[in-house]
């Protein structure tokens, strides 16, 4: 089984914020595949989808961003999902708004959700899809920025990034992640 994990924060107050771009990709896939996240276990919502390429789990940790590993680690153990069969989707301040960057490993880069995953998974070697949200304007604190909604001029870029990310996830179901990186990076 493959597992696609979108990071974000639960609740109405966070729905449209920059930090929730991973949730948006999961919502897009769930809608495209007619697979609403109706199951709950280990502090997360998920669905298991039977695709022609095999079983796929869509996951939204409900632990709040900084504790995402508390959901993902136990779910992977329970369903016996291999490290190479996951991809984690999240926001990245160091990329221009809407740009995708796929990697097979790396540090947390200051992202607390990824720090939690590394801590609970015991490795930095897992597939990840970062979606650029750009840096905050001068004088704005990072927490305020990532928990703010997208500006009107950013919304089309982010919508396009969600579609492209969902496409990359679909591509990954039948291709090695390295091929997905070659196809979608940049």
From TrEMBL:
<comment type="similarity">
    <text>Belongs to the PTH family.</text>
</comment>
<dbReference type="GO" id="GO:0000049">
    <property type="term" value="F:tRNA binding"/>
</dbReference>
<dbReference type="GO" id="GO:0004045">
    <property type="term" value="F:peptidyl-tRNA hydrolase activity"/>
</dbReference>
<protein>
    <recommendedName>
        <fullName>Peptidyl-tRNA hydrolase</fullName>
        <ecNumber>3.1.1.29</ecNumber>
    </recommendedName>
</protein>
<dbReference type="InterPro" id="IPR036416">
    <property type="entry name" value="Pept_tRNA_hydro_sf"/>
</dbReference>
<keyword id="KW-0963">Cytoplasm</keyword>
<keyword id="KW-0820">tRNA-binding</keyword>
<feature type="site" description="Stabilizes the basic form of H active site to accept a proton">
    <location>
        <position position="91"/>
    </location>
</feature>
<dbReference type="Pfam" id="PF01195">
    <property type="entry name" value="Pept_tRNA_hydro"/>
</dbReference>
<dbReference type="InterPro" id="IPR018171">
    <property type="entry name" value="Pept_tRNA_hydro_CS"/>
</dbReference>
<feature type="active site" description="Proton acceptor">
    <location>
        <position position="19"/>
    </location>
</feature>
<dbReference type="GO" id="GO:0005737">
    <property type="term" value="C:cytoplasm"/>
</dbReference>
<feature type="binding site">
    <location>
        <position position="14"/>
    </location>
    <ligand>
        <name>tRNA</name>
    </ligand>
</feature>
<dbReference type="GO" id="GO:0072344">
    <property type="term" value="P:rescue of stalled ribosome"/>
</dbReference>
<comment type="function">
    <text>Catalyzes the release of premature peptidyl moieties from peptidyl-tRNA molecules trapped in stalled 50S ribosomal subunits, and thus maintains levels of free tRNAs and 50S ribosomes.</text>
</comment>
<comment type="subunit">
    <text>Monomer.</text>
</comment>
<keyword id="KW-0378">Hydrolase</keyword>
<feature type="site" description="Discriminates between blocked and unblocked aminoacyl-tRNA">
    <location>
        <position position="9"/>
    </location>
</feature>
<feature type="binding site">
    <location>
        <position position="112"/>
    </location>
    <ligand>
        <name>tRNA</name>
    </ligand>
</feature>
<feature type="binding site">
    <location>
        <position position="64"/>
    </location>
    <ligand>
        <name>tRNA</name>
    </ligand>
</feature>
<comment type="function">
    <text>Hydrolyzes ribosome-free peptidyl-tRNAs (with 1 or more amino acids incorporated), which drop off the ribosome during protein synthesis, or as a result of ribosome stalling.</text>
</comment>
<dbReference type="InterPro" id="IPR001328">
    <property type="entry name" value="Pept_tRNA_hydro"/>
</dbReference>
<keyword id="KW-0694">RNA-binding</keyword>
<dbReference type="GO" id="GO:0006515">
    <property type="term" value="P:protein quality control for misfolded or incompletely synthesized proteins"/>
</dbReference>
<feature type="binding site">
    <location>
        <position position="66"/>
    </location>
    <ligand>
        <name>tRNA</name>
    </ligand>
</feature>
